[in-house]
Each structure stands twice: as C-alpha cells, then as structure tokens.
Write a structure and sequence with these properties.
The complex is a heterodimer of chains A (580) and B (622). Helices cover 33% and strands 14% of the residues of chain A. Chain A is α/β, with parallel strands linked by helices and 580 residues long. Chain B has 26 helices and 19 strands. In chain B, α12 packs across α15 and α20 packs antiparallel against α21. In chain B, strands 2-1-3-4-5 form a 5-stranded mixed sheet. Classes of the chains: A alpha/beta (580), B alpha/beta (622).
C-alpha cells in the first residue's frame, strides 16, 4: 500500500495514501469531532456526505475549510484541526444546528443517546448565538414501526445512505430545499404509504430523535396491570446477546438467564422463548424444503423469518412471491401456538391472553398486525417491544439487570435448542435448517453440527453442503441490497441455489433496527455474533427436531409437520404490493 | 444532403454566401431585400411576433413579395425592442427600434416602397455599424455574440454562411486533439460561468483521464437574477454551442454531450432541438463527422429551475436523475463526473467563444482583453440604466464605459450608487471603482466577482441593506439545504437583515452578520454556499454608514425599508377631506384638531395607502 506523509497540528505522520484526514488524525490521537459521518467498518457502508461541516479543518493552501471525514490526504499536506478558524466554524455550525433543533432533550426518546446532544456537550456549547425561526414539520405517526419527526432532522443523510445504498429501498431522501430541507419520502408521503420495509436501519443510524421506534412500553405496562389479562412474553434469540449493553455489560455478554428472571419480576404470567418457535419453524421449513426437493417444487426456497424482507419482496419482486417459504416467522408461530394450544392447556379464552414479543426489530411491530397472520380475526401477537424499549422498561422498574439471578424460561413454550438461538445471526436460520434436513434426508445422525462455511459477515455468501448423495447449494444474504442481487439472479434464471437465507439487516437480527444503538461501532455486532455461536455451542441439544416440547406439540396438537393443522396455523401467504 | 468533407462545407457556404454578404458587406447585389426581426425572448415579449405579422401584411399590401422577413436572435438592444434590420442589396443595413405594428407598416411604406429611411424609429445606418465589432461605438466587440441578431437560428445554412462548422471541420481534418487543447490553453480563454477556470486546462484534465467513456456538458442553467446572456446565445446562435461542444468532445475524448438547460427557457430549448436536428441531418452531429471517424451526439437535459443546479456537481447529479445537490470537490468532474466518468462542464458563453478561437487562432484571442483575462465578456446590463440590454466588451473595459457610454447612463439622471456583478454570489462595485478595468481578478480584488455576467445598476434611491437582503433571500430560497452553514446560516443572516430593515436592528447584529458571513464563506460545501454572504459582506464594507444608520438611528434614507418609514400628516396642508381615513386599513387616522388629521404611529402598518390617497401633498414620509 502506497503511503504519504502529512503533518497534522505539527505532528508528522505516514499514512495510507487513501486515508481521510480524519483517519490520519486518529493515528496520532487527534479526535476530530464528527456528526454526519458514519463508517460501518467491515460492512462496506459509509456515509460521507460532508454535509454537517462539523469536522472541518484547515489545510494549508486551501482558501476554504475542508471536511476531514471525506478529504483524502495528499503527500506533504499540512493540516490544522485546532486553528481558531476551524474551531470557530465547528462551533458555529453546531450552534446553527441547535438553533434549528427542538430543545426538548429531557423528553426526547433519544435523550442521552443523541449524538447532537453529545457533540454540543463535547464542544462546550453553553449558548446559541444565532437563534431564529425553527423549521416546522408534522410528525409522521402513520406506521406501527417507526416515528419520523422531521423537525429533529439535521440532514446528516445517514438514513438515506442506509435506505438507498444499503437496503436499496429508496424511500428516504432529501425533500424540499433551503431552510425547509429535510429527509423523508417523496411527495411528503406518510411512511405507511410507501414501500418502506420497516427494517429500521434508518433508526439504527439516526444521530438524533428524527427517526425512532413506535414506543409500546405504556401499553405493555397497562396489560401487565390488567387483572383480567394473562400476559405472556416471548424473547427473540438476538436479545440475549445485546440487551446487556444497556446495563453496562460488555458487548457479547450472554444474559439469557437474567432475561427470564427480569420478565418474571416484571409480572409476566408466562415467560417464554421465541427460540421454541424457531425450532418449530425449522420443522416446518425443513419439511417444506424436503417436500419441494422431492416433488420438483419451486427452487430455491427462501427463508421467511424476516418480516422486513417479506415486505421487500412483496413490493420489489411481486413476480417472485412463489419462492419464499410459506412458513410464518418464529414470532408469529409462537403467537399462533400461544393463542391455540397454550390457551387450551392453561384453560383460558385466547381473547384474555396478551402475547408480548421482545424483538430486535421494528418490522416485527408491523408484522404482528398483518391480517394474513390472524387466526379467527384475532391478532396472535398483541404488542411488540424492541430490545431498547424493553431495556428502558427494566430501567424504569429499577431492575439491576446485570446482577439478576439466572432463571429459566417456563414450560411448555420455553424449551429450545442451539439451532434456534443461531436464528439471531445471518446464516443461522439456514444452518439450523440444514442440521435437520440432513438427518431427515440421510437418516444418519449428524455428528458435527457446525457448518462453518455458512458463517461469517460477508454480505453475500454461498456454500455447497453435501447431504448424502445430494449437493445442496446454499446462498445467504444480509442487507436488502445484497438480497436484491440474489433475487435478480433468480428473476433472470441465473440462480442455481436450492435454498437462500435472507435477513434485511446487516448482520441479521444481531444488527436489527431495535437493538441497543451501536453508534457506528461494528465491533459490537461481531461480539454479538460470537456470543450467539457461543450460546449454541453450550446447548445440550443443537438440532431443532430434537426439541422435546416441540415434538410433544406435534404429537398432542399439530399432527404432522407441514400437515393440515400446521398449514392452517403456521403458514401464511404473500401478496403483491405497489412499489412507491 | 450530408456534409461529410470540409470541401462540401465550403461548397454549402459558397452557395449561401449572399446571406452573409447582404447582411455584412452589402455587395450581394443579386440578392433579394430582407427584413431581419429580433425574435429572441426579449423581442417576442415586446411584441415582435405582431411586428412580423404587420411587416408581412404591409409587404403583401404593397406587392413586395420578394422581400423576405427573417427571424434572428437578439441584437442586444433590449431597451428598444422590437428591433428590425432592413437589408437592401447594395445598400447599408438600416436598424430600427421600437418597431410596433404601426411602425412596421410605416417602415415598409417609407423605406421599402419609397426608398426613404423612416427617421422616427431609426437607430443607426451603415456597414460600419452593422459590423458587429463596432456596434454601439467602439467599445463593444462581439465574439460570443458574433452571430446573434445576424443569423436565423432555425436555419443551419445561415450559420454555415457565417463560417459555421468550419472550425469543427478543421479540427477533425487535422486529427490532433492535443493541438486543440494547446490552442485553447494558449488563447487564455477562462470559464465564463463564474469561476474563471482556464478552459484549456479544464479540457486537458478530462483528456488525460484513462478510459473511453467520457462526457462533455454544456451548463445552460443560467439562474442569476437579471442574467440572460446564455439564453440569448442559445436563442440567437444555437449552432455555435453545438459546434463548440463537438470540438470539446473531440479534444477531451468524449463522444456524448449533454446540454443541461433550465425548463424556463422554452424558446432556447425549441431552437436547440431544431438546430440539433438540422446538424444531425447534415451529418455535422452523429456518426463519423466529416468522415473523421469521430462520433458525437448531444442530448438535452431539462432542469427544473433550481439555482444550485448551475453548480457543476449538482448539475451532474441532476442530469443523472438524482437530487440536484453538490458534492465535495475533489474529485473534480474531470476525474469523476457524470456516472462517475470523466466529464467536462463549461457554460454556454465559454463554448460560444471556441469556434472563433479555432478559426482565428489563439494569438488573436489572447490579443484581446487584459493580461490574465483574455477575450471579451458578455454582460446583461439591467437595472437603473437607460439602455438595458446585452453588451459584449473586451475584458478590461471599465464600468463607466459600460454604464455611461454603452448603457446611456442612469435613468432619470439620478446618481449612480453601485452595480452588482456576479449575481447573488457577487458583490457591489461603488463609484470609486467605476474606472477600474474589469476582469476576473480585479473584480475579486474589490470584493465582487465576474460571475456569469449579470450587471445590475443601482441608483441613489436603492437601499444597500435592502439589496443585500434581497440577494440573501434568493440564495436562502435556492440553497439545496445540504450543508449546515448554507441551510441554516444564510437563514439566520436573512433574519438579522430582516430585523435591521424593519428598524429593529441592534448594534451586535452587525457583528453577528459579519462573523456568520465569514463562517459560511469558510465552511459551506459548494460555491453557492461559500459565496452566498458576499452581497452582505460587500455592502457592509462599502456602505458601512448606511448599515449603521439603519441600526443606530433606525432610519433608511432612501425610504426603501418600509418598516422604518414614518408617515406624517402636515397639519397646515391637511384640509380634512377624509380621503386618507377611508383608505386606512387599520383605522389609525383620526381627526385631532379640526380640520387636520393625525396618524397614530403605534398602529400604522406603513402600507402607504394614505400617502397615495392624499391629493393635497399633506402626507409626507420621514
């Protein structure tokens, strides 16, 4: 790699020729403040719009200041990050942003997570010299997943980068001009009227409170306090490796036991695990795969656990709706079983059962209300909380989460296997399916359950798995832009995959839009993924079809996997949706 | 018919020689008489279409079926539109101005039937005056505008008669793109869109990029308030731009050109479309031009009227179909432009200079103008000046020459106050710099800039604070909103100016204006943002006392700032007629001491209705 020498604040440093000034400064421990800049290292995702003008520095020979986040160094470049001009400009630009920002930090849902707030604190902004009119926009409460408050938009364009470049959905872009410019859908449409998948990646990167999740905490608290309701909780696999971050636990700490205890302490009547339903999903999905393989069915089969991904294909590839698996997601399978089998077991009217999901995801909130999922005109999942909302609920309740005693999930919807927990990361669903399909197709016992070729964090991965005399070509994509590539191959008839796993969020559910904010630190996602695999490795049972409670469920209630009753309760259908 | 060699072009030129001779030298004795009518937007707006109809009617009535009426572009005298030029073989051309329908009939009768020049509408006669280099005395020199008002923009043969496409033919015959770059570099031609970057070096930067896919773009997104240079060139001489783009394409290695033109220029678009179709039909655009193997196509891209799309990176994004907003430079378009490929962007007037440079040589061009600014510059001379219009003068001409000698001085014999050049990105030039020879560098030195050539003249009745507010309002509205300093900073500056012009200014506002202005200049993302504070900073520099008068005394001496006006009734003049009382929308006028009325200043909204209603001059503005 070619290197160049630059001088930053009189310190000479030799750096790679393609470094930015910001990166070069970091090498000599100079931290230039940034705001709009975002670099998700290792995921090939960067927002370098150079629009906030907070990271400006002085470069010798250049009449104007230069944005250090986007400016590539040149040999002999002389930079000052601390000159009076640079400091004044940085401060003035932050003050200008604040002058147009609602100062309701105390009640803002991003309070203490807001990067603008942190920046103002870091620069020691004590007063705003240039107060004036503030831009006025309506808050978009239209969707069940996310809230868009354009008045808090600082035009960093991170959400736009995620929505357009990473997810290729093209919903969010700059609209209006001049002082009224902000980010939103074209024609000022409401989010719900667009092709938004509600993946929540815009929320995951928004530095302020302009994009946040729909908060359901109050509704959950109300249900818990309603004596007529039997409130049960299910916890998605990716929560247990992330929620600890909200309680000062190291990223990658596994807190499954604390989760169970904390839910019980909050007063949930049933403390269950979505992992149970993940095992159930594998039985259905593996059956469907085997069925398609044996009956010359439509291939490849696509996983359907991710609701953002489902919305994506409905809007963007309505001609390919016969390829996803018809299986409901684990969240919705859990709901269906809770309101039928479980209700019967505990002798309750399903109307009196409130199913609360703790999910790493915003799209799950919208999924829960999909009419296709209803049984007898009743939603099967009533309330969905993100990891963040649940963490906030625990904080409000005064739970010392990190020190809670380890508990267990309740029976009969609490048992799970290692195959279920890996649903939480990209590659996990398909690995779980292969573990089961292998044994079903070959009849042999699978000794080594770890299919390392399916693991990793590259955006698109492919591997061939030998199952007896069959070679199964498997594709994996996370991030909807990557998914689009695989789908286009299918559309063009160029795809030779048998099965494809797709997750909308980079990293899969560990990087979900509802997870604790990573603030651009991708090391956190890697640690969450490691923890997922660690949790799997520590499980006694690691194949879904060995989950005893699930097997009992079939025996007592569902009958055969992929059979009639399973179809009615655990499968769904998709419909083409307009692309806006 | 196809023109696929230079000799075929010369042949076509020879066949149409009479067009040129009739208009320019008069020795086309065998030709038929003709009347040229200025049919650019300015002419049409003034009624040129009616003039044409009246001319044709009069010619028919008088049996002059031989006389052709031809539409041409703007000859530059916008103040006296519609303008016509009567060309009779063997005689000197005669120019008339203010030719309405009635005058049209009179001119036909007098001049074409009786052979007597119709004096009352006469502007000038003579070959010398018809010579574009000497029109309006010796101070104008037309290079970019050389054909405007002379050729029919809808007829490619007119252009060919005026040596059109000869430069392209020569370039393609010599097959030496580097030589073209050298000529343009040596000529000293600099970008006429505002920045003044040397065109030859810009072309060179694209030419040296690897890869075959390159683009050349014409920036016709002229958006400065009061500027219409580019529109006039496109309406009057579209082929010169097409030819120059092909030359630039050849020199830089681009086979595809785009003209990015604002949709608010429908006539220019129509004429470009016609010109492109005619050039394609003759093989002067398209495949294998002049048999050289060089292919070149041009496509139009219509802008939706965002000022920021005149900034080249924003323009490129808009042409690509995404939101028109700037991105940081580097990378420059010459490295990564349209679709990430090397791209040259030049403005209309820059292109219009290219064919004459190729035909007459770099030395000829470099011999005109000042040391560092070569050639001429077209200005749209507007505002409080008698002869509003298009002016093309050699670089180094003084403002006094432009305003007083060519522009005929200030309207109503008022005093000159300032002139704004560079549009909303420029600044004011005051009386002490009236004799500064203007070029790129001298204008920058005095706190303004060349810009694209808008020149707005202001007189003693114009308030400089109000003018600065107007420009800032414009940039604020036209900001794309991408970067913080431009989106919010200009808004805050505008608010401060608004406060000052309402008479609510405080001393610290002047400090704030200056520091905000300096910050925006230093830290905004693109040229538009970085220059947005210029009108404020420059008026603050040259008219400091005026700002201070507004802020400390809450007085606007020109009376422009309505908010500071005080309407007062002179009790000795008021007869108590109640006319003012009836029109006052807030009922703040009452009779206090018979018969005189009085205005309650606490309620007055300064609307001025009473002032207009008073027939006895009893209401004064203080």
């Amino acid at each position: 790699m070619e290197t160049v020498k630059v001088t930053i604040n009189d310190i000479e440093v030799e750096v790679n020729a393609n470094s930015t000034i910001l990166e070069a400064a970091k090498m000599v421990d100079i931290q230039i403040p940034t705001l709009c800049y975002l670099n998700l290292e290792g995921f090939d995702i960067a927002n370098q719009t150079a629009s906030c003008r907070v990271c400006v520095v002085e470069v010798e020979g250049r009449p104007a200041l230069v944005p250090s986040c986007a400016e590539i160094v040149t040999d002999g470049m002389v930079v000052r990050t601390d000159s009076p001009k640079a400091i004044a400009a940085r401060r003035t630009n932050v003050e200008l942003l604040l002058s147009n920002h609602p100062k309701e930090c105390l009640t803002c849902s991003k309070n203490l997570e807001c990067e603008l707030q942190e920046l103002a604190q870091r620069l020691g902004v004590m007063e705003i010299s240039y107060e004036g009119e503030r831009m006025l926009h309506e808050i978009d409460h239209s969707s069940l997943s996310l809230v868009k408050d354009p008045e808090k938009c600082i035009m960093c364009r991170r959400c736009e980068t995620m929505c357009n470049e990473v997810q290729t959905c093209g919903i969010l872009s700059a609209v209006s001009r001049g002082f009224a410019a902000h980010v939103g859908p074209a024609f000022h449409l409401n989010m719900v009227d667009t092709s938004c998948t509600f993946c929540g990646q815009c929320v995951a990167v928004c530095p302020t409170g302009a994009l946040t999740e729909v908060n359901n905490v109050r509704s959950v608290v109300a249900a818990l306090n309603d004596p007529t309701k039997h409130v049960v909780a299910q916890v998605a696999p990716a929560i247990r490796v992330a929620i600890g971050e909200m309680f000062d636990m190291d990223p990658g700490t596994i807190s499954t036991g604390q989760l169970a205890t904390s839910l019980r302490r909050l007063g949930f009547d049933g403390v269950f695990d979505t992992d149970f339903a993940a095992d159930l999903t594998i039985l259905e999905e593996a059956s469907e795969l085997v069925h398609r393989l044996e009956n010359n069915g439509r291939l490849p089969i696509l996983t359907s656990c991710c609701p953002a991904w489902v919305r994506f294909i409905e809007h963007q590839f309505p001609d390919l709706l016969d390829i996803p698996s018809t299986c409901k997601s684990p969240q919705m399978m859990f709901g269906a079983i809770a309101k039928t089998y479980y209700a019967k077991k505990v002798g309750l009217d399903p109307k009196d059962i409130v199913v609360v999901s703790i999910m790493p995801c915003l799209a799950k909130k919208t999924e829960a209300a999909r009419e296709e999922m209803d049984i007898d005109h009743m939603h099967n999942v009533d309330l969905v909380l993100t990891t963040r909302e649940f963490g906030a609920m625990l904080k409000e309740a005064g739970t010392n989460f990190a020190h809670l005693p380890v508990g267990e999930f309740d029976s009969i919807l609490g048992e799970s296997t290692g195959a279920a927990v890996i649903f939480g990361t990209t590659g996990g669903v398909i690995e779980a399916a292969v573990r089961t399909a292998y044994e079903w197709i070959t009849g042999d016992e699978l000794e080594n359950v770890e299919f390392k070729q399916l693991r990793g964090l590259e955006g698109i991965r492919s591997a061939t798995v030998e199952i007896g005399d069959k070679s199964l070509n498997i594709g994996i994509a996370h991030g909807l832009g990557n998914a689009r590539k695989l789908l286009e191959e299918i559309r063009e008839g160029k795809s030779n995959y048998h099965a494809i796993e797709i997750m909308a969020c980079p990293g899969g559910c560990i990087g979900g839009g509802g997870q604790p904010y990573h603030h651009g630190d991708m090391e956190i996602l890697r640690k969450r993924q490691e923890a997922i695999y660690r949790e799997d490795a520590g499980m006694k049972v690691r194949k879904s079809h060995k989950n005893q409670e699930v097997l009992k469920l079939y025996e007592e209630f569902l009958g055969e996997p992929y059979g009639d009753r399973a179809h009615k309760l655990l499968h769904t259908h998709y419909s083409p949706k307009e692309r806006i | 018919m196809k023109i696929s060699t230079l000799s075929q072009l010369y042949e076509a030129k020879a066949n149409n020689e009479s067009i040129y001779k009739l208009r320019e030298t008069g020795d086309a004795v065998e030709a038929k008489p003709e009347i040229l009518v200025g049919m650019a937007t300015c002419g049409i707006a003034a009624g040129a279409k009616k003039t044409i109809a009246a001319l044709e009617k009069a010619l028919k009535e008088n049996g002059l079926t031989d006389v052709k009426v031809n539409s041409v572009g703007c000859i530059g005298s916008c103040y006296c539109e519609p303008t016509i030029q009567v060309n009779i073989p063997g005689q000197a051309p005669v120019y008339y101005g203010y030719v309405d329908e009635m005058a049209a009939g009179e001119i036909v009768k007098s001049h074409l039937v009786n052979g007597v020049v119709f004096d009352s509408k006469l502007l000038k006669i003579g070959f010398e005056k018809a010579d574009k280099e000497k029109r309006d005395g010796k101070r104008q020199q037309r290079i970019a505008l050389r054909n405007c008002g002379s050729v029919d923009p809808q007829n490619i043969m007119d252009y060919i008669a005026y040596r059109g496409y000869e430069a392209l033919g020569k370039v393609l015959e010599e097959k030496d793109p580097e030589a073209v770059l050298e000529v343009i570099k040596k000529s000293g031609l600099r970008g006429r869109g505002g920045g003044g970057y040397p065109t030859g070096y810009k072309w060179h930067a694209t030419a040296i990029q690897p890869g075959k896919e390159k683009y050349i773009i014409c920036n016709a997104d002229e958006g400065d308030p009061g500027a219409f240079m580019d529109r006039s060139i496109l309406e009057g001489d579209p082929h010169s731009v097409l030819e120059a783009m092909a030359i630039g394409g050849y020199a830089t290695g681009a086979n595809k050109g785009f003209i990015y033109i604002r949709a608010e220029y429908p006539l220019a678009i129509e004429r470009l479309k016609t010109a492109m179709a005619q050039a394609e039909e003759l093989g002067l655009l398209g495949k294998n031009i002049f048999g050289s193997g060089f292919d070149f196509d041009i496509e139009l891209r219509l802008g939706a009227g965002a000022f920021v799309c005149g900034e080249e990176t924003a323009l490129i994004h808009s042409a690509e179909g995404v939101r028109g907003e700037p991105t940081k430079k580097p990378p420059f378009p010459s490295v990564a432009g349209y679709k990430g490929k090397p791209t040259t962007v030049n403005n209309v007037e820059t292109y219009a200079n290219v064919p004459p440079i190729i035909l007459n040589g770099a030395d000829w061009f470099a011999g005109i103008g000042t040391e560092k600014s070569k050639g001429t510059k077209v200005f749209a001379l507007v505002g409080k000046v008698n002869k509003v219009g298009l002016v093309e003068v050699p670089m180094g001409t003084t403002l006094r020459e432009i305003i007083y000698d060519i522009g005929g001085g200030i309207t109503g014999d008022k005093n000159f106050r300032a002139v704004q050049t560079g549009g909303p990105s420029g600044g004011v030039i005051t009386v002490e710099n009236l004799d500064t020879p203007i070029d790129y560098d001298s204008l920058k030195e005095i706190g303004s800039m060349m810009g694209s050539g808008g020149m707005i003249v202001m007189d003693e009745s114009d308030c400089m604070v109000n003018i600065a507010k107007f420009y800032l309002g414009f940039t604020q509205e036209e900001s794309c909103g991408k970067c913080t300093p431009c989106r919010i900073g200009t808004k805050r500056m505008y608010e401060i100016l608004d406060k000052i012009t309402k008479g609510e200014g405080e001393p610290e506002d002047l400090v704030k204006l200056d520091s905000l202005g300096q910050n925006i200049k230093l830290s905004a993302l693109c040229g538009l943002g970085q220059t947005a504070p210029n009108p404020v900073l420059s008026t603050m520099k040259y008219f400091k006392e005026e700002y201070e008068r507004h802020v400390f005394d809450h007085k606007c001496d020109t009376g422009s700032c309505k908010g500071m006006r005080v309407y007062r009734i002179l009790e000795d003049k008021c007869i108590g007629c109640r006319a003012c009382v009836k029109v006052c929308p807030v009922n703040c006028i009452s009779m206090v001491q018979k018969p005189a009325h009085r205005i309650d200043q606490t309620l007055c909204t300064k609307c001025g209705a009473c002032f207009a209603a008073c027939k006895y001059d009893a209401i004064v503005i203080e």
